Automatic annotation (TrEMBL):
This is Gluconate:H+ symporter. Keywords: Cell membrane, Membrane, Transmembrane, Transmembrane helix, Transport. NCBIfam families: gntP (TIGR00791). It holds the Pfam family GntP_permease. It comes from the Bacteria. InterPro entries: Glcn_transporter. The chain crosses the membrane at residues 6-37, 58-76, 96-129, 136-154, 174-193, 228-251, 271-290, 311-329, 349-377, 384-405, 425-449. Coiled coil: none annotated.
Amino acid sequence: MPFVVLILGIILLLFLIIKLKLNTFVSLIVVAILVALGLGMNPASIANTIKLGIGNTLGELAVVFGFGAMIGRLVSDSGGSYRIAQTLIQKFGKKRLQLAIVVASFIIGMSLFFEVGLVLLTPIVFAVALEADVPFLYLGIPMAAALSATQGFLPPQPAPTAVATALGANIGQVLLFGIIVAIPCVIVAGPLWTKVVRRFFPDAFVVKKSLPAFGEVKEYDLKDTPSFGLSALTSLLPAIFMAVNTVYQLAVHGGKEIKNPHGFDAVVSMLGNPMIAMVIALLFAIWSMGFHRGRDMKQISNSIVEAVKSIAMLLLVIAGGGAFKQVLIDGGVGDAVKGLMMHSSLSPILLGWLVAVILRVSLGSATVAGMTAAGLVTPLMASLNVNPVMMALAIGAGSLAASHVNDAGFWMFKEYFDLDIKQTLGIWTTLETVISVTGLIVVLLLNLVV
């Protein structure tokens, strides 16, 4: 019965979002309440369950996610992102343009949402493609693959951070192993997959002379932008702090997280905490991309306000996913999954990936799919002795699979690259699926040796 209620709940959620066009956050809360009633929960406790789910999800994530958006916007508005892309392109040369785009997109994607990164890089990549006289998609597919992989695997991106937090995984380790997983995913789904889809969709690989309509293109004079080193440091500073903490724990304490650190251990632990790392990085960004560039506090504040506006609804959607997840846990669905899978020979890592894939196909949102999958597999973690870092990465891989018409990214890719529905399904949907499957394979291999 719990599975029937869950399936009906997912169908209803899909109906509300796609057919009725109801706001995703509202749909999640409404469905969470109805699913809670269907699972036989005490009506008086439903509100507390939803409140608990929202609070647990947004506790640390609000700062990590919010400050990350602010850092990304400050770097973007100062021209730092433009400088990163242009410098890498100049260094790599025209013969290795795909590699340059991948590296630039990977770096920028670590501090920007997929949608923001796509909007930011599209005009730059188009200009480079036009100058080099190559098809837009020749460079666009590697760009999209890099941005998507960072969104699925690398904290401080919201989805992997939220999933890691829900599973109790060390975020620093998720970041380090996420990089190991993301690199082959980008190579396979980027330059290699471009060669494959070019054979099936030759009409899409033409040299375009005009930009797809996606709003105002912001232009920068390179001499007026911050240096490459300062721009890259500002974008990557949170990741650097978290990586240093993780490497320190691996080198000094054998990878074991210290329960009550003291002295230097405490300082390293504090700096490596995602929330503290984000606070320090934002203060640095305010100086490096603000005051240091001659911008006054009013201009800096405008960038910060715009960043907050851009993520407000996404934060609520994440909160709604947390509420839905908590209902599934408190309502017994997680225990039902646990009971069903206890005697199954299916790998729990594969199970986590498969659950995320099903939810991704059903709901569209990678973040909601990841959060809900994390809630479903949480009861399996202790009983089957699963590495939470590997499970978080497997769920991240599954949450990227088979993006289609219920995903905003699908429509963004279609419009930005001026494709029809068939071309978008054949190029974008398959690209996301290739990342997902490649990610699963790498996670399974890592799980054998970690």
